[in-house]
Structures are given as structure tokens and as C-alpha cells.
Automatic annotation (TrEMBL):
PROSITE patterns, sorted: MAGE
GO CC, any one term: nucleus
SMART domains linked to this entry: MAGE
Name by which UniProt lists this protein: NSE3 protein
InterPro entries noted in UniProt: MAGE (IPR037445), MAGE_WH1 (IPR041898), MAGE_WH2 (IPR041899), MHD_dom (IPR002190)
Length: 199
């Protein structure tokens, strides 16, 4: 059961979709549900020792898990497989923008910012494909971003914040370092973000 669960989790993680306890029970653990926590703990240990991945529960009400990469990261290398690098680069830029703007941004501000980078929602991008779909669906489904409707807006507006996976896989400190590197400034240049990142 343990090795079957490890494989199941690795396959699910390829798409970076959070894994529900119900799916683990239904697809892998089945009649061994009394030994659920033991099987999950052992699978967690195997993932940690063999793959350097950590099984983390991100939602205790809905019992949802993700795998996060906790191998020591090379400087500037971002948690991912080769073809995902560009997407993760874009994600890091979006997370940086949200953090620098006070941890929450309206969708209109986000699209405006991406336009400056010549990434246009609604246009096919050579690397990212449909950018709006990537941001609003994929990054949200993977729990990197959270999107919340802003009440009483017509047409409807949304705000973006960091999702639980972003909180676990990176930190505000890392993101501030990244921004500082791009801007060629010291992280302390942004006093309020700096004190929040150090907190």
C-alpha cells in the first residue's frame, strides 16, 4: 500500500493539483482505511528520504495535501522541472508583484502589470499559451494563487493573493531578494516589505 500511495502521490504531483484524502482512500488505501494514518506517514517518510519531497496538509477541514520540494535549492533555481521553469518564473514575478503591493491586488492591476512585461491576457503566448487561463485556472487550482470576487463590482472584479502552496514553497524573504536582485537594490530599500519578510 505504501509504495502504491507513493506512486499515486508522485503522479498527482506532476500536475501540481492538491490531493484529497478521499482520493487516497478510494484509489489506493481502499480496505486498509483503518491503517490510513500509518500508511500516509510511511509514504511521507519514503517521499522525504527518496525524493526530497514533503507531504504537507494545506487544508485540515477538507484534508487536502500537496507535495513540496525541500531539497536544498540552488541559488535562483525555482522548484521545478525544465519545461515548467518559464511558468514558475512568471509565477514568481506575479507573487512578487502581489507581495510588493501589500499582499493583495485587483485583477485589473495584475493584467496591467503583465502587459508591461509584454504578456497579454487573451493572447496566445509563445511559452505560456493562454495567460489568463494559466493565471486564473492553473495557478489557482494548484493553490499558488487565491482569487476572490470583490463584492458589488460590475463588471465583476477579483483580487489575487498568495495561495497556500506559495506560502509553503517560497517565502516573502526569498521573493523580496528576487525583486531586489532584478531592481539592483538592497532589500532594505523597501522598508515595510522588508520588516514583513523578516517577521
Amino acid at each position: 500500500q505504501v509504495s502504491e500511495l507513493v506512486q499515486f502521490l508522485l503522479v498527482k504531483d506532476q500536475k501540481k493539483i492538491p490531493i484529497k484524502r478521499a482520493d487516497m482512500l478510494k484509489n489506493v488505501i481502499r480496505e486498509y482505511k483503518d491503517a490510513y494514518s500509518e500508511i500516509v506517514n510511511k509514504a511521507g517518510r519514503t517521499l522525504q528520504e527518496v525524493f526530497g519531497l514533503q507531504l504537507v496538509e494545506i487544508d485540515t477541514k477538507r484534508h487536502t495535501y500537496i507535495l513540496i520540494n525541500n531539497l536544498p535549492r540552488a541559488k535562483g533555481e525555482y522548484l521545478c522541472r525544465e519545461k515548467e521553469k518559464e511558468k514558475m518564473g512568471l509565477l514568481l514575478v506575479i507573487l512578487s508583484f502581489i507581495f510588493m503591493k501589500g499582499n493583495s491586488v485587483k485583477d485589473s492591476a495584475l493584467w496591467e502589470f503583465l502587459n508591461l512585461l509584454r504578456v497579454y491576457p487573451g493572447k496566445q503566448h509563445r511559452v505560456f499559451g493562454d495567460v489568463r487561463k494559466l493565471v486564473m485556472e492553473e495557478f489557482v487550482r494548484q493553490k499558488y494563487l487565491e482569487i476572490t470576487p470583490i463584492p458589488l463590482t460590475d463588471p465583476p472584479e477579483f483580487k489575487y493573493q498568495w495561495g497556500p502552496r506559495a506560502e509553503k514553497e517560497t517565502s516573502k524573504k526569498e521573493v523580496l531578494k528576487f525583486v531586489a536582485k532584478i531592481q539592483g537594490k538592497d532589500p532594505t530599500f523597501w522598508a515595510s516589505q522588508y520588516s514583513e519578510a523578516e517577521a
